[in-house]
Specification:
Layout (H helix, E strand, L loop, with lengths): L7 E4 L5 H12 L3 E6 L2 H13 L3 E6 L5 H14 L5 E4 L16 H29 L2 E6 L13 H21 L4 E8 L14 H9 L9 H12 L10 E4 L8
Parallel strand pairs: 1-2, 1-4, 2-3, 4-5, 5-6, 6-7
Helix pairs in contact: 1-7, 3-4, 4-5
Bound molecules: nicotinamide-adenine-dinucleotide.
The site of nicotinamide-adenine-dinucleotide (NAD) has 26 residues, from helix 1 and helix 4.
Length: about 250
């Protein structure tokens, strides 16, 4: 099931969190994985874990908001591993906080759009031409439940960027399908990563949050990784342009 052997997979932002779980699972399924991020020590740790279980991985650094960095990384990856078959544009996130829209600073707005929407565009721009030329490829982008429904206490710029990622994914799926390239998006919610720990949520809020998920628990990076594996593999060969909610049923977008 979900065999990725002979595939080269790049997972941006895989030095930790969801990206690291995706990189580990892809390597387990036989992919040669490019682990990417900004923290060299963390990348080396993910690479070592993959190598320990007999998997193959190379580290790559670079800022995903810089097209120059992405192009340089693509050159290194293609020289060492060959062309990328599976691209997971996972790097992203936000340092903003929920606040009234008129109080959001221009800098904070631009940072969220850059880190999430522009970075996803630039990552795709770098790797798509090769995929179209070869007539195959699977691209997975990363949205968020924040991009699936409006809420008064959301991170507005982050949510707008993630909704942008969704339509970018679908426009691209429409453009790239005739070239044999599939493009899908995952929208996770409340995933417990190293950065997003249960201890940070006040005890009294935890139960209410759990109750807001029909499946009555928070998500794990591995929950997202298994969804990414399906979309990366040929088992989803008739699936493109999909926004896959991985959220325990917390948001059911129609
Ligand atoms: P994380 O903060 O734990 O890891 C983010 C990774 O992206 C790190 O490796 C970091 O180095 C990298 N990164 C960020 N900006 C970068 C840049 N400009 N250049 C290069 N690398 C960069 O994040 P996570 O929680 O694992 O989230 C991964 C993705 O999933 C993000 O796109 C995030 O928005 C999305 N997401 C996460 C959750 C959640 O609950 N954790 C929920 C919804 C969506």
């Amino acid at each position: 099931m979900h065999d990725l052997s002979k595939k080269v997979a790049l997972v941006t932002g895989s030095s930790r969190g969801i990206g690291a779980a995706i990189a580990l699972l892809f390597a387990e399924q036989g992919a040669k994985v490019v682990v990417h991020g900004r923290d060299r020590e963390a990348l080396a740790a993910v690479q070592a874990t993959i190598n320990k279980t007999g998997g193959q991985a190379m580290p790559a650094t670079g800022d995903v908001t810089s097209f120059g960095d992405l192009e340089a990384m693509r050159g290194r990856v293609e020289a060492e591993y060959g062309a990328v078959d599976v691209l997971v544009a996972n790097a992203g996130g936000s340092t903003s906080r929920p606040q009234p829209i008129e109080e959001i600073t221009e800098g904070s707005w631009r940072a969220d759009i850059d880190t999430n929407l522009t970075a996803t565009f630039l990552t795709i721009k770098s790797f798509l031409p090769g995929m179209k030329e070869r007539g195959s490829g699977s691209i997975i982008t990363m949205s968020s439940a924040a991009g699936r429904r409006a809420h008064a206490h959301t991170l507005v710029a982050y949510a707008a960027a993630k909704t942008g990622v969704q339509i970018l994914t679908q426009d691209l799926a429409a453009q790239a399908g005739p070239y044999g390239v599939r493009v899908n998006c995952i929208a996770p919610e409340m995933i417990l990563t190293e950065k997003n720990q249960l201890q940070q949520i006040p005890q009294e809020q935890q139960q209410a949050l759990i109750q807001s998920h029909p499946l009555r628990r928070f998500g794990t990076p591995e929950d997202v990784a298994r969804a990414a594996l399906y979309l990366a593999s040929d088992d989803s060969s008739w699936v493109t342009g999909v926004i896959l909610d991985v959220n325990g049923g917390a948001v059911m977008a129609t």
